[in-house]
């Protein structure tokens, strides 16, 4: 059981291509060279009015992995990160499967890992991690070279991501607008926006230099933009899939923040288990704030959000 974080900064990571009974391998369904438009992901992020309440700190779509750092500026918007991720995954999967003529699941059956970021440094860590995915995986040498959705450059250069309605999926007379823009913003809780951008830029450049030195020492080269754009979506990665990795609930740079998160998580589990036991027995029960599945699908009563 995991707590749902309303009004908190979170970082989510999701694996691509689902292994099913019919397909037991990963595929490059999110490769920049196989997307009908590199802005499709931006369209999905801002497609629904409720989704626009979210400030996206970082957005990146890699070959078979999607990562996001998101925060709702107002808990009153009522859109839980779980709901946001569900809508994002659902629309991307439907649109891309329609484009490919596929019928199987698009995402891995493994649930996404949503981590609550407890302090500003943990948020910056998540933004840098998200941006560096293509570099870390040896696809390009610098983040700005990534030909797909590049949230970092949009964030640093304060340019909105612009997407047009995919003609292969959404109908012209439907409610989906012809085009949409998504502006990535620095939450005020992180400090002065320009100072934060400078910090992010310097950390990314330092990581790029370190990774370049590691590649040179090992005699490796990056895949390169040309090869990425020529990549077929039916291809599969040759590296083995990571299994049984840790699935953290929270991330923090400071021990005090981490300890408070542990105390909060323990209190949530205790309250949730007690409420669930009463609910199963038919008694009146109020579930703690952060309850998601039973709230949505069983209509249980959840305690009011504490401001």
Q: Your description of this structure?
A:
- The protein is of the alpha/beta class and 307 residues long.
- It is built from 8 helices and 9 strands.
- The strands form 3 sheets. It has a 5-stranded mixed β-sheet with strand order 2-3-1-4-7, sandwiched between helices.
- Mean pLDDT is 77; it is low at 17-24, 41-67 and 72-78.
Observed structural traits:
2 domains, 8 helices, alpha/beta, globular, 307 residues, 9 strands
Write a brief caption for the model.
This protein is an alpha/beta fold and 307 residues long. It folds into 2 domains: 10-252, no CATH class; 254-307, no CATH class. It has helices at 40-46, 81-100, 120-136, 151-156, 193-218, 225-229, 255-280, 293-297; strands at 10-15, 55-61, 65-71, 113-117, 161-164, 179-182, 250-251, 286-287, 301-302.
Map the helices and strands.
Blueprint lengths: L9 E6 L24 H7 L8 E7 L3 E7 L9 H20 L12 E5 L2 H17 L14 H6 L4 E4 L14 E4 L10 H26 L6 H5 L20 E2 L3 H26 L5 E2 L5 H5 L3 E2 L5
């Amino acid at each position: 059981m995991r707590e749902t974080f309303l009004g908190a900064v979170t970082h989510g990571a999701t694996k691509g291509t689902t292994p099913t009974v019919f397909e037991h391998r990963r595929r490059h369904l999110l490769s920049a060279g196989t997307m009908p438009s590199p802005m499709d992901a931006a369209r999905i992020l801002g497609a629904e009015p409720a989704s626009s309440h979210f400030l996206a700190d970082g957005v990146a779509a890699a070959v078979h992995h999607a990562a996001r750092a998101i925060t709702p500026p107002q808990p009153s918007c009522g859109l839980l990160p779980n709901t946001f991720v569900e809508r994002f995954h659902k629309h991307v999967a439907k649109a891309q499967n329609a484009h490919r003529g596929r019928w199987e699941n698009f995402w891995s059956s493994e649930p996404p890992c949503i981590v609550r970021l407890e302090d500003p440094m943990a948020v910056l860590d998540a933004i840098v991690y998200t941006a560096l995915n293509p570099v870390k995986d040896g696809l390009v040498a610098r983040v700005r070279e990534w030909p797909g959705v590049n949230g970092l450059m949009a964030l640093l250069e304060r340019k909105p991501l612009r997407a047009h309605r995919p003609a292969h999926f959404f109908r012209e007379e439907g409610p989906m607008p012809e085009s949409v823009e998504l502006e990535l913003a620095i939450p005020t809780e992180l400090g002065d926006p320009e100072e934060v951008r400078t910090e992010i830029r310097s950390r990314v450049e330092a990581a790029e230099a370190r990774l370049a030195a590691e590649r040179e020492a090992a005699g490796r080269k990056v895949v390169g933009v040309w090869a990425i754009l020529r990549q077929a979506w039916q291809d599969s990665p040759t590296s083995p899939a990571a299994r049984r990795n840790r699935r953290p609930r929270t991330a923090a740079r400071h021990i005090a923040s981490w300890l408070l998160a542990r105390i909060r998580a323990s209190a949530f589990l205790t309250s949730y288990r007690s409420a669930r036991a009463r609910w199963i027995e038919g008694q009146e029960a109020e579930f703690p704030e952060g309850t998601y599945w039973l709230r949505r699908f069983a209509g249980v009563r959840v305690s009011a959000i504490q401001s």
